[in-house]
Design brief:
This protein has 3 domains: 124 residues, no CATH class; 246 residues, 3-Layer(aba) Sandwich (Rossmann fold), CATH 3.40.50.10420; 56 residues, no CATH class. It is 55% helix and 10% strand. The protein has a 6-stranded parallel beta sheet, with helices on both faces. A 4-stranded mixed beta sheet has the order 8-5-6-9. The longest helix is centred in the N-terminal third of the chain and has 22 residues. It is elongated and about 95 Å long.
Length: 464
């Protein structure tokens, strides 16, 4: 089995060579940029909004313990069961325990990246439960038996024709390339599942400490049905989703819609704070909230990088990243792709196994510039590189750089290296890219800049 680095390199080579696939992504993200910029112009000052959002998230994360206790206490006062999960395994066990206690057969689930993070679907299916994704994009990739391609747009890599073929094969529908007809095909299949489901599972976009409410933002209404129709509802969310006040959403909801999808406001914004009360016509009889740590507190303890917990999962950094645009979402091999994934995955899943993601970056800073909560993403990629090298130094590389430093700081050695370099340069053309080439890791994908026929020192001496 290939390790994570080899898998990344293999998949990246495959996707970057697929010009059709890259064209689809470039076209989709190009349209997104037009809509995003149009919506940003509606803000009185987008930069001021970013600053306020960053300060609000800083306040939330700096006092995370206090806000979490306030959030949990107000939920429990309304009859909600709050569960604390330190690890992915604990979260899976808690959710499976709830489902088994209800003797459920079918689970309907709305979009939740935390569920992808802990591999919840696989655990439920292994335990014998039928699990159906209700978000259209998530439903499509579930039928294809593959993970989401993007944090916000799970099926953005697929064409209408590919989706039509998938529905024809899996659902027995007639071929069509009409978006409306494809949507109705999925709707007919999913409506039955809402009625049959015993348990509904949701994620969360924000958790409001002041009121003890879970805020869910969506464009299809599927999360509302997943919450309203089954008798038992479970919300799984990371502890970093907290916001101090309900009024904070006046900024965060339009900001999430603008940065995430180029919308003024998302179609459906719902709040959940407890099970159905007497006299209410719908809602779950039982409500459970699972608060997931899964190494987030370790990131919280890192004063240098804890602002990565400010992320609102808008996907804006993915949309502008030149690496993501060329290698695609599946290449990263982990739940969170793009710049934010490259920053937090080494913290969540192990620095040495995932350090290569922090090197898969141009360090252009586009991600930092676009982040609505001003996370210093490209600097954090450098921090990860430094931490990985400090934790487990590359001995040969360290030796090479030490020799290089010695040469460039010793004039006589530098002149000697230039002299031999000019002599050996023509010979290098014959072995370039082969196993005999000592510079092969560089020359496999890059041209080696030719050395000047004469050094600057030689030119200077000639002029005098």
């Amino acid at each position: 089995m290939k390790n994570t680095v080899e898998q990344f390199k293999t998949q990246a080579s495959k996707v970057t060579a697929d010009l059709r696939h890259r064209g689809l992504i470039q076209t989709a993200l190009g349209k997104y940029e037009v809509q995003r910029d149009r919506r940003k112009s509606a803000f009185q000052s987008w930069e001021s909004a970013r600053q306020i959002a960053a300060e609000t998230k800083w306040e939330a994360i700096q006092s995370l313990d206090k806000h979490l206790m306030e959030f949990a206490g107000k939920l429990e006062a309304r009859g909600t069961r709050v569960h604390w999960a330190s690890t992915a395994q604990q979260a899976r066990d808690i959710i499976l325990g709830i489902i088994q206690a209800k003797k459920a057969r079918c689970v309907i689930k709305s979009k939740a990246m935390t569920a992808e993070e802990i591999h919840l679907n696989e655990a439920m299916e292994k335990a014998g439960f039928e699990v159906v994704e209700s978000d259209l994009g998530e439903y499509i990739v579930q039928l294809r038996k593959e993970p989401p391609y993007h944090i916000v747009f799970p099926a953005m890599h697929l064409t209408r024709g590919e989706i039509s073929d998938l529905f024809h094969r899996e659902l027995g529908s007639a071929p069509t390339e009409s978006p409306e007809e494809l949507t109705m095909i999925a709707r007919r299949a999913l409506r039955r599942k809402y009625i049959q489901a015993d348990v509904g599972i949701t994620g969360a976009n924000f958790a409001i400490a002041e009121t003890g409410m879970v805020s869910i933002t969506e464009n299809e209404g599927n999360a509302r049905l997943s919450a309203a129709l089954p008798k038992t509802m479970i919300s799984l969310l990371g502890i970093e989703k907290i916001l101090p006040r309900l009024s904070d959403l006046a900024l965060f909801l339009p900001m999430l819609a603008t940065a995430g999808a180029g919308q003024t406001i998302t179609c459906y914004n719902s709040f959940y704070s407890g099970p159905r009360r007497p006299g209410e016509c719908d809602g779950p009889e039982e409500y459970h909230v699972v608060l997931l740590d899964n190494r987030r507190t370790e990131l919280l303890a890192d004063a240098e990088q804890r602002d990565a917990l400010h992320c609102i999962r808008c996907g804006a950094c993915l949309n502008v990243c030149p690496i993501y645009r060329n290698v695609g979402g599946h290449t990263y091999g982990t739940t969170y792709s793009g710049p934010i994934g490259s920053v937090i995955t080494p913290h969540l899943r192990g620095l040495q196994d995932w350090k290569h993601l922090s090197s898969a970056s141009s360090l252009c800073g586009a991600c930092t510039e676009t982040c609505p909560v001003k996370i210093n993403l490209h600097h954090h990629l450098l921090h990860n590189r430094r931490n990985a090298a400090t934790e487990k130094p590359a001995r040969l590389e360290k030796l090479a750089f030490s020799l290089f430093a010695t040469v460039v700081n010793t004039p006589s050695l530098y002149r000697l290296a230039g002299f031999f370099g000019r002599i050996l340069q023509p010979a290098h053309r014959w072995i370039k890219g082969t196993w005999m080439d000592p510079l092969r890791p560089w020359t496999q994908t890059r041209e080696l800049a030719p050395l000047a026929p004469r050094s600057f020192r030689h030119h200077w001496r000639a002029r005098r």
